[in-house]
Amino acid sequence: MATVVDARPRRADRNIPYQFDAEDLGETLPTARGGVSLRDLALTIRANAVLIAAIIGGFLVLALIITLLQTPKYSAKATIQINSQSDSVLGQTGTVEQESANYFDQDRFLQTQLDILQSRGLALRVSQRLKLASDPAFFKAAGLGAPDSSTSSAAAQESVLGALKSNLSAELPRNSRIASIGFTTADPGLSARVANAFADEFIAANLQRKFDSSAYARSFIADQLANAKTRLAGSEIALNNYARQNGLIRTRDVATPSNGDNHLQGSSVTTDSLLQLNEAANTARAARIAAEGRWQALSGAGALNSPEVLSNPAVQSLLGQRADVQSKLQQARAKYLPDHPVVIALKAQAAAVDQQLKALVGAVRGSVKAQYDAAADSEKKLEGQVASLKTATLGEQDRSVQYNLLAREADTNRTIYDGLLQRFKELNAAAGISASNLVIIDRADPPAGPSSPSLFKNLLIALAVGIIASGLVVFLREQFDDSIRVPEDIEQKLDLSLLGVIPRALDNPGTELADPKSPLSESYNSLGSRLLYATGEGVPETILVTSAQPTEGKSVTSLAIASNLARIGKRVVLIDLDLRRPSLHRNIGAENTRGMSTLLTSQDTLDSVLLATGQDRLTVITSGPTPPNPADLLASARLQGLIDDLAERFDVVVIDSPPVLGLADAPLLSALVDGVVMVIEAGRGRRGALKSSLRRLRSMRAILLGAVLTKFDPKKSANRYSDYYGYDYYNSEPDTAARG
To answer: How far apart are CA 597 and CA 574, in angstroms?
Structure first.
């Protein structure tokens, strides 16, 4: 079978198809975007509303059934305050501190208390207190099988402990010290009793741990105290014996703790005497030095120049008298002769004053010398005594080495003994009256209503799960759905221009096409207008209308395209080249005795098969009798010549071809025309099949003008496009008026 695709230059080689987009279509279509908008999400939900409602409803019904089948549970709750330190009950000397006060990390302490609350040991105390291992009511309320005679007590006890730990809930908010203790069973009274028992036993166990640790501490300290007392007595006896044997007399304050090694040994009588005499010798030495300084000052200079003499009141008085007599003597000499009696008397008076002054200065010097001699003698005596005591002290220090060791040991034993005795007294005072750092705030009361199952909570959970499940189902459905259902799928899934959207015919397509105001006619009118701009030079001269599968509306589409082009003034010929399943003759009500098969198998002229229609400028050629080899006829060179002749005689040649899949007819014909229109039925066309069809057409270098989406029903697309297509424009107002 030969093809005729390279025999001549094609007219379409100079006509580049125009790529339509949403604005070129003249309609406000939802365009494909990189992300998903809220409107797209809302439209998707509306499109799958029934499925979503069914999934959510199923989960809600399941939650209702589960809730009704569950046994009611009752939760009782007690609250307890956990302090890091217990209250003081004995004052400053009897403070009872909780061990946890030493924790640097309080969060860790609180978590430890919570773990103790949930421990197996505390559950065992509760079980023993309430005698739950032999209580059938507890087994029934906890959902456990009642123990029979063959069940051992240990096995029953283990079952009870497991039920206590599994039904117990202990919570402690992060920023609070109030812990809640909850217990859940089928019996409200039992739940309250067990919750309160946990709170009471928690406090009792805490106090018991304190008492046990205090008893052990008292016993331990009592033993240590006895040993310390024995050691203290032995060390004191050894110290006294050594002091007696060596003649050491120490002054020690046994009631005052020592602060260092120098204070452990205290002081001896010899040392105290040495210190006192040494201080006295230092004082005498200072007095001697001062007296010596006064004597040297008095003897080294003039008598009257010494401060010691000048400071004497008597000397000062005589000096004043001498100055007065000298003044008078000078005045008398100025007036009288030297042998005048007044002058002589004043001279005698001045000599007497000098004599008295000289005697007084001598007395002062003698007094200073006597003080100096006495201070020197006292210093010498004291230094002799200090030297004697130094020798005695040095000998005593040699003998005190062992004494100091014994004294240090005695002081250490006394300090240990005093500390142990004080601690023993505190423990004896605090034993049995320890305050707990745990305080019950609220005791549990039997609940008035069940805590579970909660119908509202279960329904909320079911609603959330249903929404998530329905969203997942819808997402997977959308992802795996490769059908062409809406106009935007043409561009998104096929990368093909959209030429038009044709609604599903409500009546016979021929009847609706005959009515120019019908939605079908309006949509095909729009399609015809777009074909006028399919290429840069207008409508293509030869157009092939095909589809991937049969019965997708290509025959009606080809008839409508030809009719619309003829209506706007084009001379159009419509050819039915579907030689296997022709339908054009039925659509126009004509006989199919002669047609294209006749022309391809004979030498008849075109005029013999041209059929006029009731519409001006529209001529049709039916398929003619079905030949035994349609593919061979369509691949013949005569078909190409016939199409060229028709293109010369008419403005537009529209060809209705067979489907692409499974047949070679459509790809062969696509190589002979200037443009191909792909017809796709909404909801039926699959992406895979359509992609395969387009590949077959492109392999023949076919020029694809675009696609037409037929049999589109906006209502089945959840009104996604009902706002964009006003097919009932002509009929809406009259219908509204009639209804009014």
So the answer is: 15
Residue 281 near residue 375 (C-beta atoms within 8 A) = no
Detail the DSSP E strand segments found in 390-541.
Answer: 438-442, 498-503
Residue 401 is assigned to a structural domain of this protein? no
694 and 582: one domain?
A: yes
202 or 515: whose pLDDT is higher?
A: 202
- At 17 the pLDDT is 55
What are the φ and ψ backbone dihedral angles of 708, each rounded to 5 degrees? -120, 120
Predicted confidence (pLDDT) at residue 495 exceeds the cutoff of 50: yes
* 676 in any annotated domain: yes
Q: At what angle do helices 341-430 and 188-245 cross, to 10 degrees?
A: 130
Helices (H), 431-496: 455-480, 488-494
User: pLDDT at position 655, please?
Assistant: 92
Range in 187-196, 377-386, 521-530, 541-550 the model is least confident about: 377-386
Distances (CA, A) of 609 to 364, 443, 571, 637, 639: 178, 105, 17, 19, 14
Q: 474 and 574 in one domain? A: no
Q: Dump strand ranges (E) for 29-142.
A: 74-82
Residue 100 is classified by DSSP as: G
Q: Looking at residue 177, what DSSP letter applies?
A: -
Separation CA 190–CA 196 (nearest Å): 10
**Which CATH number goes with the domain that contains 110?**
3.30.1890
Give yes or no for a contact between 136 and 146, defined as CB atoms under 8 angstroms apart: yes
What was the pLDDT predicted at 339? 77
Q: 615 vs 159, 508, 559, 611, 623, CA distance in Å? A: 95, 19, 12, 11, 20
Query: Does 498 score more than 90 pLDDT?
Result: no
* pLDDT reported for residue 151: 65
Give yes or no: residues 470 and 589 share one domain.
no
Give the CATH number, domain containing residue 582: 3.40.50.300
| Buried b or exposed e, range 463-485, using 16+ CB within 10 angstroms | eebbeebbbeebeeeeeeeeebb
pLDDT digits (tens, 9 = 90+) for 515-566: 777 888 888 888 888 888 877 788 899 999 998 888 888 888 999 899 999 9
Q: How far is Cα 39 from Cα 617, in angstroms, rounded to an integer?
A: 46
pLDDT of residue 194: 93
- Range of 48's domain? 40-70+453-479
- Determine the distance from the C-alpha atom of residue 337 to the mean position of all C-alpha atoms in its chain, rounded to a whole number: 128
Backbone angles phi, psi at 171, to 5 degrees: -130, 145
User: Structural domain tally of the chain?
Assistant: 3
Q: Which residue has the tokens 């203790």?
A: 181
- For residue 740, the model assigns a pLDDT of 32
Which pLDDT tens digit goes with each residue over 79-135? 999 887 655 444 443 344 444 444 457 888 888 888 999 999 999 999 999 988 888
Q: Considering the domain boundaries, does residue 141 fall inside one?
A: yes
Longest CA pairwise span in the chain (Å) = 205
Identity at 310, one-letter amino acid code: L
Tell me what the pLDDT averaged over the chain comes to.
Answer: 77
Considering the domain boundaries, does residue 487 fall inside one? yes
Mark which of 390, 417, 442 sits at the end of a domain: 442
Nearest to 440 by CA among 175, 119, 195: 195
Q: List alpha helices for 187-264, DSSP H.
A: 188-245, 261-264
| Cβ within 8 Å of residue 39, ≥6 positions away | 30
